[in-house]
Specification:
- It is built from 8 helices and 8 strands.
- By secondary structure, it is of the alpha/beta class.
- It has an 8-stranded mixed sheet, sandwiched between helices.
Length: about 230
């Protein structure tokens, strides 16, 4: 995630303490959080704990989607729900593995069906910082963008621990994708993302892959519809 001022990129131009008991609070924008989880028994609790208390309080729903894990991912989610009494926490165990992209689709379809305004996506393996959700969704709630994602390529990714081989590969793939799509994004593969629900309803979500190519496919779908993308 970039530090400091938020940077907008438009595809039309280019492109731990135990959580406190949740109290109901009304906000003008209905925020949902989808946590995609697969064999996340050891990390899921930490991920949920790191969601800022003010975000937990204002979220319409926090949905944990356990993608047919055979460990105790689902049990850990249910244990957290019971301990913390989060009324807005929903824990779902998929009987069949849907894949990384398929699991996201399920969560986004749920949010579209419930007519939420914005959905933020977290990984149950603690790969991305829940503390950055307010920054991630700010441009969406201000209706300045339709998709927002935390770029890992801004700042100093190598100093942040990114392996050199991944850094070089990411740079190469980004240059190729930008040239192909006519965009100017700093990367295409960050999984820390948020979307406006009205924007998701405009694209053919089911055209996107059920596997890890999903994150690139959905950028392409947004590009086709001339929807706005912001990087933070």
């Amino acid at each position: 995630m970039r530090k400091g001022k938020r940077s907008r990129v438009s595809v039309s131009d280019t492109n731990t303490a135990t959580p406190a008991r949740v109290e109901e609070k009304k906000h003008s924008s209905q925020l949902a959080i989808v946590v995609v989880a697969y064999f996340a028994e050891r990390t899921l609790r930490h991920v949920l704990e790191q969601i800022p208390p003010e975000v937990v309080k204002r979220a319409s729903e926090i949905i944990v989607l356990d993608d047919a894990s055979t460990d105790k991912t689902y049990d850990m989610g249910m244990q957290c729900k019971k301990e913390w009494d989060w009324k807005n926490l929903t824990i779902i165990h998929n009987e069949k593995n849907l894949g990384y992209g398929g699991n996201q689709k399920k969560g986004y379809h749920m949010c579209m069906d419930k007519n939420y305004d914005v959905v933020a996506m977290l990984h149950g393996d603690a790969q991305y910082p829940p503390s950055k959700i307010p920054e991630l969704v700010a441009s969406l709630e201000a209706n300045e963008a339709d998709m927002s994602f935390g770029s890992r390529m801004s700042g100093s990714p190598l100093k942040g621990g990114m392996p050199i081989w991944k850094f070089i590969g990411n740079k190469f793939l980004t240059i190729y994708a930008n040239a192909t799509l006519g965009m100017h994004l700093s990367e295409y593969h960050s999984g820390f993302r948020a979307y406006r629900i009205d924007a998701l309803k405009k694209i053919d979500l089911d055209r996107c892959s059920d596997n890890f190519v999903f994150d690139t496919d959905i950028v392409i779908e947004f590009k086709k519809k001339n929807l706005r993308i912001a990087e933070t």
